[in-house]
Amino acid sequence: MNKLILSVFFALMTLIIHPVATAADLEVNTPAIAAIKGSMQGRHAQLAPHYASGAVGLTRDGLVAVRDANAVPLAQRQGVNALVAAENKDRNALYKEIAIANQHPEWESDIRNTFAQKWVEKAQRGWWYQGAGGWAQK
Fold it and tell me: Which of 16, 72, 104, 115 has the fewest CB atoms within 10 Å, i.e. is most exposed?
């Protein structure tokens, strides 16, 4: 009986602490969101080899980072840094626009955290991500 009570308690606490997970429409679409997604999709083909090589990884805050600069030839590093910066600019804008489209700008950090988890779930095997203990390979 105690296990049941604890299970219900933790389920209720999850809903209270993380209302965004159940309330936000993460699939909402506005012209601004569509433009950001299009930009990100166009860049993905350029980033994919760097995810695969381990040079670039997914951060715990829903962004991307150069994880291992040595995995990128010196002549290409500036380009990879520019790709990462552009991707992070779009990701930050995406989280903000989704929160605004849901009429709850204060949800931005929760939306970011939700997306951070989704990016890792959807990552291909071998890609790197930041977990609680640092970088890990999927």
Answer: 16
Given a contact cutoff of 8 angstroms between Cβ atoms, the answer to whether 138 and 123 are in contact is: yes
Res 134 pLDDT > 70: yes
Task: Provide the token pair at 59.
Answer: 């951060």
Residue 112: partners with Cβ closer than 8 Å, 6 or more residues away: 61, 62, 95
Helices (H), 54-107: 77-101
Residue 103 counted as domain residue: yes
Provide the number of structural domains found in the chain: 1
- Which tens digits make up the pLDDT trace of 76-110? 999 999 999 999 999 999 999 999 999 999 999 99
Q: How far is CA 70 from CA 75, 88, 128, in A?
A: 11, 21, 15
Structure pTM? 0.83
Between strands 128-131 and 56-58, the pairing is parallel
Look at residue 6 and tell me if it is in a domain.
no
